[in-house]
Amino acid sequence: MGVNDEGRELLLICGMSGAGKGTASKVLEEFGWYVVDNLPLRFVGELVDRLAEAREEPRRFAIVADVRSLGFDEHIGELLGRFDGRPEARILFLDASDEALVKRFNNVRRSHPLQSGDGLIDGIQRERKVLEGIRGRADVVVDTTSLSVHDLRHRLEKPFGDLGFDFHLTVESFGFKYGVPVDVDMLLDMRFLPNPHWIPELQAHTGREKPVQDYVLADPSIEEYLRAAVSMIGLAMTGYRREGKRYMTIAVGCTGGKHRSVAISESLAGRLTGLDSVDVHVRHRDLGRE
Fold it and tell me: Which positions are annotated as binding GTP (predicted)?
């Protein structure tokens, strides 16, 4: 199933139970993907082969496979082998923090598929161990801990919805005090810059506003830093394209995710916008959280 000669795409959707695979499947269907869920894995290989031979739709085919799938332990290795070295075949992994997963399971009052009579957290930890290899091989990892359904749709739209761009860049600001995002490819720490929080007239403003941006960008070291960052990102993009990857997330952090990281994310995204066949999206994870 080759995207270059037949225009087809193949996607494996995997991830933690409760992390949003069902929601992600519905979103992908909106984007034109044909999604198959809960099919015994021993049938999936034959199905993929038949689709490769067919001339008709679907052109974009997604398979949901997780620890619930019949034959998961026996056949997942064979399925993953179909994704090695094929840029048209990608893996999406949905993740979330243990705390978020516990809360979601408690809200729906159901047990974890690997709980086996033990505590809920025991089942979650077992599943993490089972899936850690797949997570490491994934082309796209999305942490849904703090995402709404709308946010998840936007995150999936870039790599799986729009076919008009060759590469998708997400620049995401965050606050270290709320934790480092897990689904990032490069992290930039802005805590070396003077903090506008301690300037009374700037404290209530955010990095999306000109007074804060002017203050942050006035630091004598930031221009050289941003030039180096753009150069480093460009080098990484070249390597990603060579490896068949089309998406990259750059996390930009400061203490609270309100001033410095937001201002620098906006400035960095502005410098990256306009690159040939590159779509740039800015997301401020913790803005308004304080």
Answer: 66-69
| Count of H-run helices and E-run strands, the chain | 10, 9
Tokens of 121: 């957290």
Instruction: Give every residue of the chain whose pLDDT is below 70, as ranges.
Output: 1-6, 52, 55-57, 162-166, 244
Backbone angles phi, psi at 232, to 5 degrees: -65, -40
For the chain, domain boundaries:
3-160, 167-284
| Structure confidence at residue 49 (pLDDT) | 75
**Res 2: pLDDT:** 40
CB 268 within 8 A of CB 216: no
Q: What distances in angstroms separate CA 152 from CA 25, 32, 50, 106, one per listed residue? A: 11, 16, 31, 21
- H/E element holding 51? helix 41-53
Q: Which residues are annotated as a binding site for GTP?
A: 66-69
Judge residue 34's burial from the number of C-beta atoms within 10 Å of its C-beta, 0-12 exposed, 13-18 middle, 19 or more buried: middle
Looking at residue 55, its pLDDT comes to 67
Q: What is the mean pLDDT of the chain?
A: 89
Candidates 290, 253, 268; CA nearest to 217 is 268
Per-residue exposure over 37-67, b if at least 16 CB sit within 10 Å of its own CB, e if not:
eeeebeebeeebeebeeeeeeeebbbbbbbb
- What's the residue count for the chain? 290
Annotated binding site for ATP: 15-22
- At 106-149, the pLDDT tens digits run 998 888 999 988 899 999 999 999 999 999 999 999 999 999 88
